[in-house]
Amino acid sequence: MFGILDRFEDQLAVILIESVEEEHIVDKAILPEGSDVGTVFDVEKMEETYSILSINVEETENRKQRAQQALHALHKKKKRSKFKR
What we know:
The protein is α+β, with helices and mostly antiparallel strands. It has one helix spanning 57-77; strands at 2-9, 12-17, 22-27, 40-46, 49-55. The chain has a 5-stranded antiparallel β-sheet. The termini are far apart. InterPro entries: DUF3006 (IPR021377).
């Protein structure tokens, strides 16, 4: 199961658990070193909460590449202004 670090709110980190569409809020200090917004974690459900197992480097890189490709495609579609400068 994957969790994506969505954002930081003061000393808390909000992790989105995609497969169950839930938010998991943890103390920023317990995140693995190198965690940043967009980092993908391997997580497991433990009773009523989730446990971060590790950073999934491969999935994090795949998602970054897909985001870059989408941005690139948007920039290519961008039309120039019809107004003279």
